[in-house]
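WARN  no MSA supplied for this record, continuing single-sequence
INFO  ligand: zinc ion
INFO  echoing inputs
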Amino acid sequence: MAKTLIRGGTVVNSTGTAQADVLIDGETVAAVLAPGSTLLGFDVAGHVDTVIDATGRYVIPGGIDAHTHMELPFGGTAASDTFETGTRAAAWGGTTSIIDFAVQRTGEKVFDGLAAWHEKAAGECAVDYGFHQIIGGADADALAALPALIDEGVTSFKLFMAYPGVFYSDDAQILRAMQIAADTGLLTMMHAENGPVIDVLAEQLIEQGKTDPYFHGIARAWQMEEEATHRAIMLAHLTGAPLYVVHVSAKQAVEQLAAARDRGQNVFGETCPQYLYLSLEEQLGAQGFDGAKWVCSTPLRSRAEGHQDHMWQGLRTNDLQMVSTDHCPFCMKGQKELGLGDFRNIPNGIGSVEHRMNLMYQGVVTGEISLPRFVELTSTTPARMFGLYGKKGVIQPGADADVVIYDPNGHTSIGMPVDESGNPTGRTHHMNMDHSAWEGFEIDGHVDTVISRGRIIVDDGEYRGRKGDGSYLKRELSQYLI
Ligand code: DUC
Ligand code: ZN
Ligand code: ZN
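INFO  complex generated
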């Protein structure tokens, strides 16, 4: 088994930082040692296959992106990253595990949906991967299938209060699903937006000739996120089910979560980089059809109303516990442009799986969060929330050797600059997209080396992994169950 020593770096866990050397034996962390220490009298560096000098750099647990949608069929097309391209991009950005969403729709069997996702991912992934299960048709059959997901390592399922006719569940269906969750320990993940009301508002906007991407954000008013978040919390309270609200973007929704947590309820919230950095005015409101790049749901919110600052605050105060991407990329050509003339037909989603670690590290640079909190939000809490902790989310003996060597003195320019003919020039991203939603973002740090279960898969600007390196993660129940 190959041995690697990472020496001279600052090891950052969610609990704090320490100058330490990390010894990797095969796929796992064997020891975290005082710098330069010997083991049983041996100089460790002299007895390993590879020594990585991490002097002046951070040694952090590999990122866990707990919310991705590779190849998701949506709006008459499918998300443009395959498991191969999306997980390779994840690796480039320091994310060594993803949790994607298998899909079941009305009339379909839950286990057929799960099998289809296994088929898409098996042998394709650059990093480890697990699944949540979307229940898009919560009929009696689908609900009866839920408990058996646990044996498959799928210990969380997502319901939608939005998208009537596509993924939507009504309150009665949500209630029944949560009752099962309360009995079994499954974690209910909720897309909390009032879909029926949003659809009426969207229809009225189109009738008024308001067809641009900007109006996607107007139709999906924050009131409908707050209302749905409150309703989900109340249903969770009634049933005793723990609740995890995905892609929170409205400050009022955070307030609902905070109030419920203050009452002692076991509820959690995730936000995404787009809700921390981007806005209704600047991006969705971009000239012409350009705003389509940033059409996602929940939508980007108004900066004038202060939602972005409130998301950062929630991350600091633990009113929000995690940052995932909701990575759901679509190209402009042939995909986003399906919504030219009617924003309702723009496939919803932004691609960020490659950038989450850098974007969140920038929050350390600007003083929004501390370095250990950065690790907690991007790796440790995702591991705890979704039954991976111990193997993932921490650098400690016995953990999988998923390690990122991050250079705080490095620099990353994000984007996809193009020449006058539209051909990409210079630095580009690795996601399968014809544009970047993060064009022009500059990060005061750099992902130098990425190690996945002991193998170096990214090093010094070179990809050294292979498709199929990633293994399926059979997850335990959430650590936050009470
Ligand atoms: N939101 C998105 O932006 N894309 C996929 C599904 C979702 O809920
Ligand atoms: Zn969603
Ligand atoms: Zn999603």
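The chain has a mean pLDDT of 97.
INFO  checksum written, moving to next record
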